[in-house]
Amino acid sequence: MGDKTAVIYARVYSTGERQSTERQVKDLSDYALYRQMDVRKIFEEHISGAKKNEERPVLCQTLEYCKQNGISTLLVSELSRMGRNAFEVLASVKELLDCGINLYIQKEQFNLLGEDGKPSLFAPIMLATLSTCAQLERENITFRLQSIARSEERRVGKECRS
Q1: In this structure, what are the phi and psi dihedrals at residue 121, rounded to the nearest 5 degrees?
Q2: What is the CA radius of gyration of the chain?
Q3: What is the DSSP letter of 54?
Q4: Do the beta carbons of residue 8 and residue 75 sit within 8 Å?
Q5: Which of 43-52, 117-126, 139-148 shows the lowest per-residue confidence on average (mean pLDDT)?
Q6: Would you say 65 and 101 are in contact if contact means Cβ atoms under 8 Å apart?
Q7: Pairwise pLDDT comparison (79 vs 128), residue with the higher score
């Protein structure tokens, strides 16, 4: 893996000031600098990771850019940035793998491809586990939000009857 070109992909859920991709971009830029990688482009997306890949235009642009420009490594802060649906994440990872593009996940310090350009024996297990955990976390978030909404409705309903 002599080529040291990289692309950064950062994603957050909301478009407001509450969430920003700034930390992800800074951390990944610092990593790339440390590894002497040439970051060719930074892609930032504000959309739910639960959406299908084709409903996430910036992710699609990122993958296409990597393929068309011979990028060696796609940098993400954690696998859930690629999505929160295990099958969608694995489809993106397979696309990268088929094109010989490494995926670096900073949180786990995980590289999809080894120095020889081939996936490690543990890569499929690790990716399946991480993507499933991201999907479960998304389901937990949804459950908590629905629970909060139900308790708010009950509270508001009591106030209206008083």
Answers
A1: -65, -30
A2: 18
A3: G
A4: yes
A5: 139-148
A6: no
A7: 79
